[in-house]
Amino acid sequence: MNERPAPETKPRVDSLVDVLPFSDRIPRHDGEMAFDQAWEIRAFAMTVALHEELGFPWEEFQSELIAAIQRWEAAQTDLAGWSYYERWLAALGELAQGKGWLTGAELDSRTQEILDQPPTTDHHHAVREPVAVVPGA
Amino acid sequence: MSVDQKIQPVEGLSMHSDAELAARAKAMEAILVEKGLIGSDAIDYMSSVYENEVGPQIGASIVAKAWTDPEFKERLLADATKACQELGFGGMQGEEMTVLENTPDVHHLVVCTLCSCYPWPVLGLPPNWYKYPAYRSRAVRDPRGVMEEFGLDLPDSVEVRVWDSSAELRYWVLPMRPAGTDGWTEEQLAELVTRDALIGVGDVTRPGV
Residue ranges of the Nitrile hydratase beta subunit-like N-terminal domain (chain A) (predicted)? Predict the structure, then answer.
């Protein structure tokens, strides 16, 4: 349950991050990659896992990310205002469609399905007593 | 990007809130996993590489302050949401936080039995195992067994209480200050506090002990 990643994994992933476009814009905390939202780390991890499991060249994702950032810059006047992981997710979507892993329509309808679900329906009440107590011997 | 800041809408894209982006990331993962292109476990593994970096530094600094400032500790235990706001930490609108104090007689363990409710503005992102069904069910059925797996061996005399975090009320643990740390600064103390200790699957020890 409490697994830690193998020590050689982090340098390997770091080296992928180092070659990304606009890497100075990657949010960091004390020099390490920092994520503000759970979906950001999920999108990041999904991309690296796909690269490692399916073996597509990392340059293909790099190119999609550059293109996604350029699309933003072409459409906006505030060139500095983009979010790294919003563009990351757009790039991953393009890559996935280009590879035939999914279609835009599939992705849109699944996204809508998830948005239509009320969040944590069952878990919106406060539980104010312990759910289990194991007395000391 | 801060929690409140909205992402700028992009022409040709309808995504412009964190909720929508989160749903899109989730949708993509669900489709790729269903099609057998990738396993959730491979994604979990890669996210574990950096999840410690998001880390519980804020929670650790709050614990260190509570250890050195008895009046703050009292306020923290009385109303954690308010005490954390006092230090500038918060951001979960309308949601309540409660801090549970470990003592030599009572040890607290936190779980979200249904999903992965977690006080992330203070503790960072939850670790993968916090979301696994194995932790969510076993923490309630066999908390001592779970803690042993994490390397925490409590004396038999200690009572264990398990608390269920929900979207409305999220718990975290104030661990016991380790012996032999008299005169340590808040910064030194904060270094000792781990995420596991703040969830209750670990405790805080002095290095070399």
Answer: 26-121
